[in-house]
Amino acid sequence: MSALSNGDPKVYDILKKEENRQAYGIELIPSENYASEAVMEATGSIFTNKYSEGYPGKRYYGGQEYVDMVERLAIERAKELFGVEHVNVQPYSGSPANTAVYFGLLEYGDTIMGLKLDHGGHITHGLPISFSGKSFNCVGYEVEKETGLINMDAVRELAIQHKPKLIIAGYTAYPRKIEWAKFREIADEVGAILMADIAHIAGLIAGGAHESPAPYCDVITTTTHKTLRGPRGAMIMCKEKYAKQIDRAVFPGLQGGPHDNTTAAKAVAFGEALRPEFKEYAAQIVKNAKALAERLIENGFNLVSGGTDNHLILADLTNKGIPGKVAQEALDEAGITLNKNTVPFDPRSPFDPSGIRMGTPAVTTRGMKEPEMVKIADWITSALENHENLDQLHKIHDEIKKLCKNFPVPGIKI
Ligand code: DSN
C-alpha cells in the first residue's frame, strides 16, 4: 500500500491499527466476516471510477461494455447460487434493499408484518421510528416468552387479524431455523406477499447448511457481506412477476448510479460461494456455533431458545449479574468483539441491554474449529467473571494473540 502510506500517512496509520486489531482479536459479531483478498481487490478496483445509472443494455452513460459484463456476471452467478428467477445486484446495502422492496410493492399506509426489533427483527422491518414504521402500518410478531421461539400459530392468528399486504421472515438476532413453508401457507391464507430477509443466513443457505426460502418466497433481500462473505452491499431476488417493480424501485426510485466496484466484488464473492469449499465453510459455521453454545451453557450461560441452529447465539446475562454494555466493554479489553443486544422481553434499554449477541462466521473463515470454540467460551466466561480486573482482561488478550497467530485473516500479513 505504498500509494496510501506515502500519500496519506494519517489514514494509513489508522488502517494499520485496525489491521492489528482484526488480526489479533477474536471477531464474534455475527454480522461481520473477512472478505477474501480477491473480493477486496475488486472492491478497490478502477470500477470505482465509473458511472452507470440504469441496467445492463439500458444505461444513461457511455462506456458501459465492461460494467454491463460484470453486472450480468454477478446476476447470473447469484441466480445459480440461490436458484431464483430475477436478481437486482445494485442496492447499496441491506436497509436500502428492504426500502426498495416496500417502495416497489406497497403503497404508503399498507400493513406489513415483521418480527419486533427487540425480539430479533430489524429496524427496517417496522420499527416505529424508522422509515418502515413511519410509512406503513406495522404489526410486530414476537417470540414466545417461555421458549424464545417463533410460534407459527401465533403468527398465523396475527396475520388473520391484521391482513398484512407483506409478511417479512428473516432476522438479525434469532438463533433458530425459519419455517419458510409455514410462512408461505400463512401468506397464502391472508393474501400477503412473502418477503425473506436472509442478510444474516445467506451464506448458510448458499452453502446448503440451511433450507433455501427461494421455493416459498416472492421476494428475498440480503446483504452480501455477512455469512455470504462478499463486499459491503446487498441484492434483491424475486419472482419474475415482481422484477419490473423491484428494478424501477431501486433505480430510478431510490438510487442513482450503482457502485460498480462493489458489483464486481459481488460477482467475485458469488463465484467463491459456488465452489465446493464454501459448503464446508457453511457447515462449519453451524458446527462452531453449536460448540460455542454448548460450552457457554456448561459455563452457566442462559442462551435465548437454549442454543442455536445457525451462526449466532444470544445470551441473557441477567443470571450473571452483568449488563450487556459492561460485558461488551470488558470483552473488548480482552480482545473479543461482540455486541450488546436486547433479549426478548428485555426490561433494560437497547443502549444498556441485558444480553450479548455473538456468532461464528468470522472465526470460521479464519479456519477455527470446535476446539477453538471451547477456548473462546472459556475466555468469555473468565473475562466476564473478571470484568473489573484490567490486568486479568489483558492477560486473556495475550493468550488470544497467541492463538490468532495460527489463524491468519485474509489480506493481513502477521
Ligand atoms: N447491522 C446488522 C447486524 O449487525 O445484524 C443488521 O443490519
Written description of the protein model:
With 414 residues, this protein is of the alpha/beta class. The protein folds into 2 domains: 40-273, Aspartate Aminotransferase, domain 2 (3-Layer(aba) Sandwich); 283-404, Aspartate Aminotransferase, domain 1. The chain has helices at 2-7, 9-23, 37-43, 65-82, 94-105, 131-135, 152-162, 180-190, 202-206, 243-254, 260-273, 276-298, 324-333, 361-365, 370-385, 390-405; strands at 26-27, 54-55, 58-59, 86-88, 111-115, 137-141, 166-169, 193-197, 219-223, 234-238, 302-303, 312-316, 336-337, 339-341, 355-359. The strands form 4 sheets. A 7-stranded mixed β-sheet has the order 4-10-9-8-7-5-6, with helices on both faces. The protein has a 4-stranded antiparallel β-sheet with strand order 11-12-15-14. The model has no long low-confidence stretch (mean pLDDT 98). The structure holds D-serine (DSN). D-serine (DSN) binds next to loops. D-serine binds next to loops.
Layout of helices and strands:
Blueprint: H1 2-7, H2 9-23, E1 26-27, H3 37-43, E2 54-55, E3 58-59, H4 65-82, E4 86-88, H5 94-105, E5 111-115, H6 131-135, E6 137-141, H7 152-162, E7 166-169, H8 180-190, E8 193-197, H9 202-206, E9 219-223, E10 234-238, H10 243-254, H11 260-273, H12 276-298, E11 302-303, E12 312-316, H13 324-333, E13 336-337, E14 339-341, E15 355-359, H14 361-365, H15 370-385, H16 390-405
Parallel strand pairs: 1-13, 5-6, 5-7, 7-8, 8-9
Antiparallel strand pairs: 2-3, 4-10, 9-10, 11-12, 12-15, 14-15
Helix pairs in contact: 3-11, 4-11, 5-10, 7-8, 12-15
The structure holds D-serine (DSN).
D-serine is lined by residues 31, 94, 122, 172.
